[in-house]
Amino acid sequence: MTSPRVGIDHKIRWADLELVYQQWAAGMEISPATLIPQWQHVRGLVARKKAATIMTRLWNQEGWQEGSSRSLLSETLRLHRLLGYWGLFVGTYPFYQETASTAGRLLAVQEGFTTRQLYQRMAGVYDDSERTRVGVKMILGMWVDWHLLERVKVGHYRMASRKTVDEPVAIAFLTHVALRTSYQERLIWHDIAQFPWLFPFDVVLPRRSQMKEFGLSMEQNGARELMVGER
Fold first, then answer.
1. pLDDT tens digits, residue range 17-69?
2. CA–CA dist 36, 158 (Å, integer)
3. Among candidates 185, 188, 176, which has minimal Cα distance to 224?
4. The model's pTM
5. 3-state class of 182 per DSSP?
6. How far is CA 87 from CA 53, 69, 77, 116, 121, in A?
7. CB 71, CB 25: distance < 8 Å
8. Angle formed at CA 167 by CA 86 and CA 193, multiple of 5 degrees
């Protein structure tokens, strides 16, 4: 039996995310062929190919390229860039989502965590291998670069900052990501703010009436439970 794919083998810097975002917003092609020549700051052709492959998968993710879906992503990125990037990574890479969920669970019960604690839990889901170690290391490096985690000392991390998200359009984007990655047609509305992979964010859910225009349907299930799904 093969283990799940890791897929993340290079640290993606915030500056590179911003660069490719501007190209995506301008309607330019995002591919290794267009990215590799620009990334001379990434040392080595192999490393450039890895970074370009990650970015290509990220920005060409099916479901965000046309019509109202692209508009939703575009507006989310305009208002809350970090959440937009986060949702793209969660939707593209199950390994990223699982790493974020694991970090979120650790931070829910303790002030910080170590690389070893995070890796041991990830190895239980994926495997005890070099590719899992590399994936965890790259993601931790990304979060430090994005100023979400602070490296207290070698191998020890704590939360650097949390971001409040209360814009209806950003939460609609987040809801679509949650539905697609959960492979469920409906989720409990109030659960949207509680997923452990959202650990860097304080999500404030808007009123039901504010969500009608974003391709979501809401219906009551019993006296207290409100369900949300895609139309």
1. 999 999 999 999 999 999 999 888 999 999 999 999 999 999 999 889 999 99
2. 33
3. 188
4. 0.94
5. helix
6. 18, 13, 10, 26, 22
7. no
8. 60
